[in-house]
Amino acid sequence: MQSTVGLNRPPGIEPVQARFHAIAEDLTTNLPEELVLAIFAYLDLPALVSVSQVNKLWRQLSGDRFLWKAVLKSICPRLQIFDDVDLAAHIDLAAYGLSVDGASPLRLMIPHLRRCPSLPVEGEAGITLLTIPKGLTLNKLIKLARSPQQGKSTRFGYNWDRILYEIGDIEVAKTYHIVITNNIFEGSRGKTVAEQRDLVGHHGCEMPRTLEQAFLLAITHIMKGKRLYTDDPWTYSCCEEQILESHVLVGGFGSTCYIGINAVLRKYNSCSRDVRGMGGVLRGS
């Protein structure tokens, strides 16, 4: 049976699909790419996905990293983003045996980002979408933070040597993305590790790993000149790894620009509970 779609269309009226492709052809032919990107910036997420399917050029333009950064920040207004291009601009990756090859598109982190506006983070610190490069270790991070190829140098101090000895040379096997809080969760300060883990887990997050937490603090200072988990008030996040049955703590980033990586042994736990809380992580691929 012959389709009746469009048979009674008034003269001069083209099918919607044909008109849409004609508009696309006019835009890509007559407008500079910068203007097309400016127009795309007004689109919501479903519309942006739709225009990526119109033609080859629009697919290329709709994948622009600055465009997607804007889209991701519209989902989570408190978001800062450090992607593979940012890392390559500030760190001599090859000199430290690091690689950001094989990183998945940041847009795949959107399901995680939709949770972020409701995460109860202390203060106004916000959230970071961070790329963790392949080959990174804690000991490499301490070295590269002292002399980035661009940005502010950052130092680690008050580090317990036992931590660096046991976990300092464990390498990241594959580049991946995380969404990580820029401060501890409200209500986590001073609680036991089990209580902190339950609080963070209640919001769908996991405990940060020592390297993730340390990289967040270092790279934010390198790129933005901003200190997180500071000494006002003194704030450390409890991390996943344990040394001598005590969880590693990262934070206390004071005005002297030293980041602390330490652990509080059980017999001293009661002395510093008020400075210890827990941040949260959502991991992607």
Explain briefly what this protein structure is:
With 285 residues, the protein is α/β, with parallel strands linked by helices. It is built from eleven helices and nine strands. It folds into two domains: 49 residues, Monooxygenase (Up-down Bundle); 220 residues, no CATH class.
Helix content: 25-40%
Question: What overall form do the CA principal axes indicate?
Answer: globular
Global Rg:
23 Å
Mean pLDDT: 83
Structural class: alpha/beta
Distance between the termini: 49 Å
Element order: H for helix, E for strand: HHHHHEHHEHEHEHHEEEEE
Count of separate structural domains: 2
Beta-strand content bin = 15-25%
Low-confidence stretches: 1-10, 265-271
Question: Count of DSSP helices?
Answer: 11
Overall description:
Helices cover 35% and strands 15% of the residues. The protein starts with 15 loop residues before the first helix and ends with a strand. The chain folds into 2 domains: 15-63, Monooxygenase (Up-down Bundle); 64-283, no CATH class. The protein has a 5-stranded mixed β-sheet with strand order 3-7-6-5-8. It has 285 residues and is an alpha/beta fold.
